Amino acid sequence: MRRPLQRPDGSGGQFFWDLLTFERLLTGTVFHLVYWAGLAIIGIIAFGVLGASVGVAIREGGWGILLAVGVLGVGMIGVFTAVLLWRAFCEFYVTIFKIAEDLHVLRQDVEAERSRQGR
After folding, report:
1. What is the pLDDT of residue 1?
2. Are 78 and 51 spatial neighbours (Cβ–Cβ below 8 Å)?
3. Distance, CA of 40 to CA of 35 (rounded, Å)
4. What is the dihedral of CA 49, 55, 61, 66, to 10 degrees?
5. Sign of the alpha-carbon torsion through 92, 98, 104, 107
6. How far is it, in rounded angstroms, from Cα 112 to Cα 74?
7. Quick one: average pLDDT of 95-119?
8. C-alpha angle 71/47/75, rounded to 5°?
């Protein structure tokens, strides 16, 4: 019969043990970088929209400036919507991982209570 895996006693091995057994989740700390990278991409898209509207204004001439204002307005509304959706997406995943951490703490509390009762 297989023995269950035992946790290491030293603090140095504890970090790697938590990573290998998924006791500690890295996604919460890495997700901040993912969020800022996504915002950077949306910022690049915003500059593209700005460049496209300036290009339309230059290419079309007189009435093209009015068209460029429309392109810029619709593009910025799209960029603003993308920022809000990206933020909501990221908050959803952060919430899921916070719930996982809370459940982990509750599980540890239940196990500690059982060990105190001698079960």
Report:
1. 42
2. no
3. 9
4. 0
5. negative
6. 57
7. 84
8. 25
Q: Are 7 and 17 in contact (CB under 8 A)?
A: yes
First to last CA, the chain: 22
Tell me the backbone φ, ψ of residue 23, rounded to 5 degrees: -75, -30
The owner of tokens 């030293």 is: 10
**Residues 32-44: tens digit of each pLDDT:** 899 999 999 999 9
Indicate whether 11 pLDDT > 60. Answer: no
Cα separation of 49 and 73, whole Å?
9
pLDDT digits (tens, 9 = 90+) for 48-103: 999 999 998 888 878 888 888 988 999 999 999 999 999 999 999 888 888 888 88
Other CB atoms within a 10 A radius of the CB of residue 78 amount to 14
CA-to-CA distance for 93 and 52, rounded, in angstroms? 33
pTM: 0.68
Residue with the two structure tokens 């105190």? 116
